[in-house]
Amino acid sequence: MQLSFPTVIATLAAVFAVATPAAAQACAEVERFGVVTISPTTLSPGDTFTVTANFSCAAQLGVNPEYIDYYIKVPVNNNGFEPPILLARRTLNPSSATPLLDSFTTQLPYANYFNASYVVILDTTYPVNGTNGSPYSVVGSVEIPISIL
């Protein structure tokens, strides 16, 4: 039997496809701290909206959230009068049907909003091991833009 170059390449591609888990292939580094979505993204004070965070890729990339905090913040050109607004502090429920998902509905607070760009920030607090093996907590963040009218 004689192997041609295209046959060898096809065989290697098949081996690598089987050896690499499909879910791990779909995770980008940007998803390390979770993926957050907001619906709707254009809001006025008092409006109800839904926040959803998916930590499936975070877990695959070694981030296992202990605490998750959601804030509204002015990310750039903050003049000091726009402190972050805490929307929620939550923990994942490992016994739920979807242990790597977090979703809740909340109301946009009646705060003083300025003519500025706003984002919802997801802060993910998770443990890592120090050089001596003892754990300590670090925080990673992702953000999604919203419009406040």
TrEMBL record:
Write the signal peptide boundaries. 1-24
Q: Which UniProt keywords apply?
A: Signal
Q: List the PROSITE patterns.
A: TONB_DEPENDENT_REC_1
Q: Know the name of this protein?
A: Spore coat protein U domain-containing protein
